[in-house]
Amino acid sequence: MPIPTPLHGVIPPVITPLTPAGDVDTGSVRRLAEHLIGAGVHGLFLLGSSGETAYLTDAQRLTALEAAVDAAAGRVPVLAGVIDTTTARVLDRAADAVRAGADALVATAPFYTRTHPVEIAGHFRRIREAAGLPLFAYDIPVAVHTKLPRDLVLELAGDGTLAGLKDSSGDDGSLRRLLVELRPLAPDFSVLTGSELTVDGALLAGADGVVPGLGNVDAHGYVRLYEAARAGDWATARAEQDRLAALFALTDAGDPGLMGASSSALGAFKAAARLLGLIDCAATAAPQVPLDEAAVARVRARLTGAGLL
Amino acid sequence: MPIPTPLHGVIPPVITPLTPAGDVDTGSVRRLAEHLIGAGVHGLFLLGSSGETAYLTDAQRLTALEAAVDAAAGRVPVLAGVIDTTTARVLDRAADAVRAGADALVATAPFYTRTHPVEIAGHFRRIREAAGLPLFAYDIPVAVHTKLPRDLVLELAGDGTLAGLKDSSGDDGSLRRLLVELRPLAPDFSVLTGSELTVDGALLAGADGVVPGLGNVDAHGYVRLYEAARAGDWATARAEQDRLAALFALTDAGDPGLMGASSSALGAFKAAARLLGLIDCAATAAPQVPLDEAAVARVRARLTGAGLL
Amino acid sequence: MPIPTPLHGVIPPVITPLTPAGDVDTGSVRRLAEHLIGAGVHGLFLLGSSGETAYLTDAQRLTALEAAVDAAAGRVPVLAGVIDTTTARVLDRAADAVRAGADALVATAPFYTRTHPVEIAGHFRRIREAAGLPLFAYDIPVAVHTKLPRDLVLELAGDGTLAGLKDSSGDDGSLRRLLVELRPLAPDFSVLTGSELTVDGALLAGADGVVPGLGNVDAHGYVRLYEAARAGDWATARAEQDRLAALFALTDAGDPGLMGASSSALGAFKAAARLLGLIDCAATAAPQVPLDEAAVARVRARLTGAGLL
Amino acid sequence: MPIPTPLHGVIPPVITPLTPAGDVDTGSVRRLAEHLIGAGVHGLFLLGSSGETAYLTDAQRLTALEAAVDAAAGRVPVLAGVIDTTTARVLDRAADAVRAGADALVATAPFYTRTHPVEIAGHFRRIREAAGLPLFAYDIPVAVHTKLPRDLVLELAGDGTLAGLKDSSGDDGSLRRLLVELRPLAPDFSVLTGSELTVDGALLAGADGVVPGLGNVDAHGYVRLYEAARAGDWATARAEQDRLAALFALTDAGDPGLMGASSSALGAFKAAARLLGLIDCAATAAPQVPLDEAAVARVRARLTGAGLL
């Protein structure tokens, strides 16, 4: 399906449920997708960081994406992360995504290697030309270790290479400047924030939507927040964001002395989704460290505090 | 004078005008202070990053601070940066600031050396005890190369060590979590954002005020933005912020191949203030590279575009 | 073939020659491998950073590795990089490497995602168990953005998980401490430096060998350096290293304003290998920027200066 | 006194002994200086990182420097750190150092602020011109957060701005390239490594000397290492370096969960110096965390293991 221009609203980066044996649990993918669509989300983003894309084999990625496309059944667009180190490898991922029926692609700058704005531009242009689907740039310096230069995004928005930006840089000041400079240049370009704690501010600033990892846990909350902002009811938007910010503390459930931030946050999203009955099993992929019982209890307490349990 | 609790509103980080010979131009300090107070700002922050504090000798710092305190004449509180590497050196700066009549102090975590949260806490506690003035923590990782941990700020807010926070981290997501956790704990604690491009969002999120470097150039704009936000008129606040975000592009006036970010941004603030007649001379302190004529022309164009010239 | 314990000597990280169309040029792989073995190297490391592994598809990686294994024909061991973001993906790469006939595997810590020492340990243990080949840890913070903790390497050396370390961290101080602590614990553990400019010092410190990207260009030089060090002739070793350090300046051939460090260094290695007749075509993989004629002339001048042309 | 050209040998960065009340213990400064000179060091570097310069007030710095100059009595040159954020502040420190009788100055690039190579060059040139003493550049990215570009050092060595470099970057590969390029250009330029774990390799590479923090604890060891290297006896140099590398583990005495790296390393140097009877009191300056008894016992064990107790 063609995606709306600009793509807007709540597009959760869907977690990838696994079985206890570590396989993709396609039944839970479908159940979760159904739940999210029922909550009113405006799209699904598969195979992003919250989807554990860095932890999944190519075969697992394909399985998860196919299940989501099938579950979405054209009701909302499905964006597919095509996360790999450089162009040729991303093109392999893009071919899989096209085959699985994705509606748009989401790619980062090259990583692992050292890169340069000229190379990043060439990278996105080659992907756009080869894959034939709308392309979103994924700005996630915590993973990629470069920040997409604002001038580069403006250039690739202006010439049609990019359909949009998923900004997970956390740099809302730079995002504001981008929004101000972008509007006269590329009004159909979609700016989506991945900063799930400042969505009210981002929407006030003119962002088109949000890609919140926490949306796996409380999609209704983000939809309410988005609708309030659309209606100009900023007091409601703020209150909803405050509630979600308090809920977000569940990502700290794991002990930082025992595990990495990914283990804690992705483990918490999955534990919460299981406690809410959205998926069958909270297992995360190796080598992440599983949350222990005390950590899961902390997740449960946050869900209760937010009125979700 | 006792500062309001919480301190709120627009508190510009005042630039330090210099003469062509490099001395502090106290006449321009006074004229600028008078202008800012006339524009309705709620306080003055001397000797911050925008004040070139890292470039001024102790004697120059004292001169600039005394002039500002004298010019403010108790109409608005004067906060003084006491920026130095570690505790004993900060205490020397604090003694100067007390002597000059500052109403509150603003200190960073230790820098140059490698530090630890336990040491940062001890650092702020010693400064608070020794100096006898309200103390604000200055979170500016781009300079200090550590980010103040949220738990540490909560602890020092709760026990009264800190009267407030100037958050120049640019991490508005972390700021949101702090605000949500802080309110029930320390309602009089003042949270000021130094992120001058996301002030509407920060005020929506519950921040008490803003410390905008660009406020040296357009104090009226920030006061209008603040007042609109206070009144719940978010459409006006957003429009004002958009205008200021466009104006902020003047900080890119210098060629990044020829100078550092400080030379460009501080040079542009000073060039703008001179073009607006607020100070006599746009010189910045060594070893910053002066803006050339083309750069100053770019600054002028931005002022014109924002309706200031 | 079983690898020597400890693996020692000169093990170049072999570049991956491409055709003008971008395919792996297996003829040039073989010719280069033959040249390197003839120069006296002690092993070949395929699919490392110098091998453009981050730029090659899985199919290309397999093609290059198979050609090298075939060319080596058991005369020297072939190590294969299995570079991917996390465990399951690395295991897919490892299965390919085993199939191609590699003698040992070289893996990094997880990247793209945020990780933790406990997870890194689990990562290496799972790879070692599943792949059934000797495993080398590849410490390359410039790519992976974490440094392998010394205690972790000691633990995994002591329990047999790791057969060795390729240290491309550039942190020779930490390497010295590792060497001092490692010897009584795991005398067969192989420590290979990837810091091609400090090989004399590393060998003096007790390293077993070197994995020099520049060894693609001057394998004889590194073999002479290694042999001099083995013989305790440090004056000769130093002079050879000085000559190689001067030659290394060819990696700066590209204009840093126009391309990234990878484009410049890998482009220069390939340009040099072509000028020396070791491969047919100097093309690098997308999105790297090709060296222009002036840059290739700079490479040629360095080769001449080092007595290679 | 004029310093040798190039300055060479062992120049310890002298710790600054404090009394229990936190004052500079000039008696211990003198005793330690006497001990170091007796051990055969070739110079004293006061007010470097090991000297806790970031923790001392200007008055304390002056006191410590005057005591050391007086104790040295012209037998070895005294270098003085003039560590501050930018040019004007460094010039104040330099005036103090000149007044105290220092023989040379050691300055870093600007820090706290963001800088640029053009500004760094201007910074060193202004200091050199104003202070009238030989000037050493102090490359310490862990504190300053920029690395001195090699081209910049070459330029400032070639034009006589700098008399030498203290390289505490830990980047021995870059150091090697510098040494190779520097020799024909500025044969009298002094290159001193601050990487106390790779001194044998640095001397093999052609460095002129070493500035080892651990030299406060085992000056005789570093002098033996230096003399062996001068004599071309690399086996002895290596063995001495290995012994010193094992001793260096005392810097890990403090619990990293309870304190920063500075507290642990500087606390350990001082604890060791006190255990060896070189200073009266092991106190470090606020806000560093003191070593507890268990940590001091670990220091004692390392001294015993190295044959110093």
Automatic annotation (TrEMBL), chains A, B, C, D:
UniProt keyword annotation of Lyase present: yes
Pfam families: DHDPS
CDD domains: DHDPS-like
Keywords tagged on the record: Lyase, Schiff base
SMART domains: DHDPS (SM01130)
Keyword Lyase listed: yes
Family: Belongs to the DapA family.
PANTHER family assigned to the protein according to its UniProt record, in alphabetical order: N-ACETYLNEURAMINATE LYASE (PTHR42849:SF1)
Annotated protein name in UniProt: Dihydrodipicolinate synthase family protein
Organism: Streptomyces parvulus
